[in-house]
Specification:
By secondary structure, this protein is an alpha/beta fold. The protein folds into 4 domains: about 10-265, ANL, N-terminal domain (Rossmann fold, 3-Layer(aba) Sandwich), CATH 3.40.50.12780; about 285-425, Luciferase, Domain 3 (Luciferase, domain 3), CATH 2.30.38; about 425-520, ANL, C-terminal domain (GMP Synthetase, Chain A, domain 3), CATH 3.30.300.30; about 540-595, no CATH class. The protein is built from 18 helices and 28 strands. The strands form 8 sheets. Strands 13-14-15-16-17 form a 5-stranded mixed beta sheet. Strands 18, 19, 20, 21 and 22 form a 5-stranded antiparallel beta sheet that branches. It has a 4-stranded mixed beta sheet with strand order 4-3-12-11. Helix 3 packs across helix 4 and helix 6 (about 190-205) crosses helix 7. The termini are far apart.
Length: about 600
């Protein structure tokens, strides 16, 4: 598409003809590649992507993404095809994703950290026509399905030019898989119209400028990566892609932020807490976005005191990343309530009671979301779609709504405040988890009669998964965890196991999860010395990690019994910036029997 030459308007630093940007109702129709090409022609030699010491200019990124589109088309990829992407974070990543979109296809992200069985399920359930991987991730893929494969390191230097398909708003941009209560992940397809409405809304508020340097640290299997990778490139800004190793290490991550003077950063509360507890502080030139789970007031206080702007972001995957945002103010902190913010343009919020009636102000109910941002429905899962999406009139322009399962309160001024979940869905480090999926996997284990998983918080208010097992015979904890690791991502594996004879029940004879949580001992993460003791030579670490952690002749050992819960590690080893903690030798989970409850 040729670049517009006159009568332009800007949102932030996004450039497009006035008729496209002046009315937000037009935003879903705006082609992404049109805005990206505008920037590549305006600023061809400006740095678009940085990964470590390597950089791509806008001219180079446009060429690379076009070459990827040519390669996909040359191998028979058609408009609407699904292309699975399983590769480590690298300089090439934005070009790969852009190339898929420019070829008219839809990308399906699969984190290389996922077990190979889960990646195989995603490939099968997404109907992926092809897979793009790097050499390192090839071994995770099924041997033959799908047969069309692209390896990043094998991309030809020259490819025959081809006509690229027109951008169609109703086509899919991406298909992302989230935890499913049935024991199998479910696909959430997002249209290009929904993605563009989201990106242009974000360009407007919280806002982005061509001078911004944007942190990109999130796996593409988490939908908030859409903001990090795609928004800067339509605004003429620079994306700093961070390796997975650096994203998990507060020392490395803070160095990346400080040395590159990054200005726009998005992360979950867990990551902001990781940095803050390490000793990093934001600067006044920085804008921080925080979302994925509830924003703790203590963390918000610390960030607002230092940063230029701090924003609370809210939204489910089914409504395209974030559906509202709110700049956190001193007034919010003084009242102890951080609102979710007003819905983005072309999105509607309604708070309903259990009968589907709008609740009055100063009351609580379930948040329903309608508008252009909604997914068409769970991919090939009509029964799940019917359960979570409802048709309703009289609430505004939208007639189809997603029932979020989030309990919110409507304040007197109309602001919404998140209260709790209405179901068994939880968030761990920003990842959405259906506890039923973990339980369904556990019930397939021969030694397990029944299983319940609950979420609670540890001593530093970090979320923790706890597994309760009714065994047929006592399962081996290490084998149990190893089996789960072959099917589920690490963040879905319980940190602590308890064996019980029976589960408490409600009057309706349902498992009483609240009583299970309340039955946990105060210091339930502190192992007894005879259970999975992990030796660490550090007195403060022993205090924080619990009585089960004793001195050893080894200078340092792994703290992976709690599945790499980095925040507690940082609390234990809090030290001046510059000191370094090395972790080695993974061990098994902490376990208890019913006598200790």
């Amino acid at each position: 598409m040729e670049r517009a030459q006159r009568d332009n308007q800007t949102i932030g630093s996004v450039i497009a003809p006035v008729e496209l940007l002046s009315d937000s109702q037009n935003w879903p129709e705006v082609p992404y590649d049109y805005l990206f090409i505008n920037q590549s022609q305006d600023k061809p030699e400006k740095t678009a992507v940085v990964f470590g010491e390597d950089v791509l200019t806008y001219r180079e990124l446009e060429l690379q993404s076009r070459q990827w589109a040519y390669w996909l088309l040359s191998e028979g990829i058609k408009t609407g095809d699904k292309v699975l992407v399983c590769m480590e974070r690298a300089l090439e990543l934005p070009a790969v994703l852009l190339g898929i979109l420019r070829a008219g296809a839809c990308y399906v992200p699969a984190d290389p950290a996922f077990p190979s069985d889960r990646i195989a399920v995603i490939i099968e359930d997404s109907d992926s026509a092809a897979v793009i991987s790097d050499r390192e991730s090839e071994a995770l893929l099924p041997p033959s399905n799908p047969s069309v494969r692209f390896v990043v390191e094998d991309k030809p230097a020259q490819l025959e030019a081809r006509s690229l398909p027109e951008w169609r708003p109703d086509d899919l941009a991406y298909l992302i898989f989230t935890s499913g209560s049935t024991g199998r992940p479910k696909g959430v397809p997002i249209t290009r119209a929904a993605m563009m409405n989201f990106l242009l809304a974000m360009a407007d508020k919280p806002g982005i400028a061509a001078e911004d340097r944007v942190l990109a640290l999130t796996t593409i299997s988490f939908d908030i990566s859409v903001l990090e990778l795609f928004l800067p490139l339509i605004a003429g800004a620079t994306v700093y892609v961070v390796s997975k190793r650096d994203s998990l290490d507060p020392q490395s991550l803070s160095r990346v932020i400080d040395e590159n003077r990054l200005t726009l950063m998005q992360a979950t509360p867990a990551t902001w807490r990781l940095l803050y507890d390490y000793g990093w502080r934001p600067q006044r030139h920085q804008k921080l976005l925080c979302g994925g789970e509830a924003f703790p007031l203590s963390l918000a206080n610390g960030l607002v005191a230092c940063a230029g702007e701090v924003w609370n972001m809210y939204g489910p995957t089914e409504a395209t990343v974030w559906s509202s945002c709110h700049q956190v103010s001193e007034a919010d902190l003084s009242t102890g309530r951080i609102p979710l913010g007003k819905p983005l343009p072309n999105i509607e919020y309604v708070v309903c009671d259990s009968n589907g009636n709008r609740v009055p102000k100063n009351d609580a109910g379930e948040l329903w979301i309608g508008g252009v941002a909604l997914t068409p429905g769970y991919y090939h899962r009509p029964e799940l779609t019917e359960d979570r999406f409802v048709s309703a009139s009289g609430f505004g322009r939208a007639e189809r709504f997603y029932r979020t399962g989030d309990l919110v309160s409507v304040l007197g001024n109309g602001d919404l405040v998140y209260l709790d979940r209405l179901d068994n869905q939880v968030k761990i480090r920003g990842h959405r988890i259906e506890l039923g999926e973990i339980e369904a996997v556990l019930r397939q284990v021969d030694e397990v009669q029944d299983a319940i998983v609950v979420k609670t918080n540890d001593e530093i208010n970090e979320p923790v998964l706890v597994g309760f097992i009714r065994p047929k015979v006592a399962p081996d904890d290490e084998s149990l965890t190893k089996m789960l690791s072959s099917v589920l991502p690490t963040y879905m594996i319980p940190t602590v196991w308890f064996r019980v004879d029976e589960f408490p029940e409600t009057p309706n004879r349902k498992v009483d999860r609240r009583k299970l949580r309340e039955s946990l001992p105060k210091n339930f993460l502190q192992a007894s010395p005879e259970v999975n003791t992990v030796p660490i030579r550090n007195e403060r670490a022993c205090e924080t990690l619990g009585a089960g952690f004793r001195e050893s002749a080894y200078p340092c050992q792994s703290y992976f019994p709690l599945h790499g819960r980095t925040l507690l590690v940082c609390s234990a080893f809090k030290r001046p910036r510059g000191a370094r903690l090395q972790m080695l030798d993974r061990t098994g989970p902490i376990s208890r029997d019913s006598a200790s409850i």
